[in-house]
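Continuing the series of single-chain predictions for the mutant panel. This is the parent chain; the variants come on the following pages.
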Amino acid sequence: MKVYFYTCSVISIVTLVSCCAALAQSPNAFQPDKSGPVYQVVPISRTLATHDYTRNTGTMTVELTGTSLLPKAHGQAKIERVDGQARITADLDSLKPATRFGHAYLTYVLWAVSTDGRRENLGEFEVTGSKAKISTATDLTAFALLVTAEPDFAVKQPGKFVIMENVVEKDRIGDKLAANLVPVQQDPRVP
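Parent structure:
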């Protein structure tokens, strides 16, 4: 019994020493690949129609229309100024599951994009079948609305899957906003 124990211990020590020697001979064995970034930033440019909601009296209805990613999607956002905030209630219809954009995409998020390009996550839509709704508020006064598919409700920047955006009537357009939406995309070489 003692011979077996000592034999296993000696074999373990020899194996450990040989592994350390192999690592010492190849110092880059556990170094990351420096040939390219793990994540890359790819700007996506969109032009959004904004509206200044400080001039509104009462409730304004804004149409939300699907982009080329979900062309049949449609909806409305009702925006009302109350106590210095824009209170927004949005209803969407003809949605498909967010997972159609990838297994990591689990939800839809409403964004307000100000005229100076600032993006504010207004919250996650409550999805039931092909319909969705949200009630939220923002302190922004002039903004555009857009809806994105996201992996998480708490994302800080809109992702690349913009599925809907507001359509402001020509007589109500404030500024045309060229918003650079900068998502972080995982490098395809990383599993």
